[in-house]
Design goal:
single chain; 591 residues; alpha/beta; ABC transporter transmembrane region fold; six-stranded mixed sheet; four-stranded antiparallel sheet; 10 strands; binds adenosine-5'-triphosphate; transmembrane helix; transmembrane; Thiol reductant ABC exporter subunit CydC
Length: 591
Amino acid sequence: MRRFIQKKSKEHPSWVTPYVKEYAGLFLLIIILSLLSAGCAAAMMYTAGALISKAALRPENILMIYVPIVLVRTFGFGKGVIQYAERLLSHSTILKVLGRMRVRMYQTIEPHVLTVRRSISTGRVLGLLAEDIERLQNLYLRALLPLCSSILIFGVGIVALGMYDVKFALLLGCFVGFLAFIIPCIALFSTMKRRQEWKDRRSRSYQELTDAVLGLTDWVMSGQSRLFIEKFKRTQQASARINHYLRRYDWRLNWFVYSLSGLVIICMTLWAGTFAEAGKLDVVWIAAFGLIAFPLMDTLLRTSNAIMELPEYRRSIERIKQMEQDANMVAQEMKYQVTADEIKPFDNMASVMLELQEVGFRYPDTKEWAVRQVNLQIPQGKKVAILGRSGSGKSTLLQLIQGSILSSEGSVLINGVTAQANQNRLFSFLNQSPYLFDTSVANNIRLACPDADDKQIHQVIQMVGLDRLIDSLPQGIHTSMQEAGSRFSGGERQRIALARVLLQDRPIVLLDEPTVGLDPITEKKLIDTILDLLKDRSLVWVTHHLTGLEQMDEIIFMEDGFVKMRGSHQTLMANERYRNLYELDHFSYLL
Ligand SMILES: Nc1ncnc2c1ncn2[C@@H]1O[C@H](COP(=O)(O)OP(=O)(O)OP(=O)(O)O)[C@@H](O)[C@H]1O
């Protein structure tokens, strides 16, 4: 458990403790509710036991039976209501925690999106992380909270029993502790290797399948699809065998633990019997002591599931942390260490001057320059397009502008300050495949600005022209993405990402081929919307297409890292090469 709680440092805070601290009050309330619910169940059985015993005697007064009947009903009713309240509260709290985690993940990756994209495919990374983060809800719901409640119930139960008989309480405490806590730990360690192997195989085969689906056409074209299917089947069968073994093991373990828990009930009844014989306990309470053990053991034995699942949660946390570190590391590797003098946040966000002076960049351990001698001035509101063949240096130039990598020579300045120093406040980014999370439409847009209210969300939705579509969804902006996701086309997904950018309200927007994969008409409409909505912002747009270039202030052609041709659309039209390219691209668009 310490491994879950402790692994943190100032730079990499834990993915569990900050949220537990932040919602400590709610967590405490959930634990109290779960204790009350277990208490009601125990009290119900206890009074039911007393009632049965009393009813077997000849009561002097009908009230002797009637009071326990009312109590049994009250506790029975209370258990259901409190348990329901506990579930509602715990799910609502966990959803709040998950929301915070998603925003944190987005904010970690978003500033480095240009550099991270090089080594890790962003959409897939975010997908994986969303899955892992979702799994963490079970860490709270099925592990941390039940474990806390069980430990408390265990402690309170033993202390209460100790008030009658210390020796028996200690003996029973050891036995129950062994059943509820020690046996699951032993079982976990003895099967750890196999569990790990099963998880590894499963994720490997998932990766293989994803790869195969992505490259389906190539498999079919090469006539090797049968080969792949057979190999995949073999992997699946091997992991099914391990899974079968583990399920049988878990089933036997549960059977063993629950059988032994029967012993606890027998011990309690026998102890209450001898206690009554010695005249220390009224005989009617014998059954009560026997029955109270049922609900308490049931709650305690749930810890075994929680303990068995701990490694799974640990791996999820490790993967998330790893990704967080990778994202920072990839960016740091090429990053410039900003000196304190350079971190001068400037206030005038409405007028930002971006300037590249003789900028050059060489990737570590390479001889070739990826970008060389680039000069560029982008005053607020200027629109610049960067074109060039694959490998000509466009993305590297975009990263230099964003400040996520440091120029090897020359400088990138924003209002005279290094871009990197103000990176998080200056740039928005729109790429080829914006990721939509499995949460509501509103939350997907709000990701870029967690404080935005519903009114602002509606406003940006209207601006990007999605209001009719979103209003037609069953719950409008609160419709879950899972329900709505399939209804969004590529262009509409880009519009949602554009709504995020609008909400972010940053002076410079970097566009990395956001229209790739769209049909020409949708592409043209999207470009018009982007240029219209972002008219006050500076734009740096990496593209392979010449559609929409008429509206740009400057077009830059990159070749082998150098700027080979530049100018406005009108001036470049005088250049035969540009005119040919434009006509070719425009002709294909008209087709
Ligand atoms: N991380 C890296 N390490 C070493 N070389 C790199 C790295 N990233 C890019 N390069 C090289 O730098 C040059 C410019 O690459 P860059 O990605 O900027 O080109 P691009 O025009 O954006 O290409 P594309 O259109 O395919 O994205 C290429 O020769 C590329 O191989």
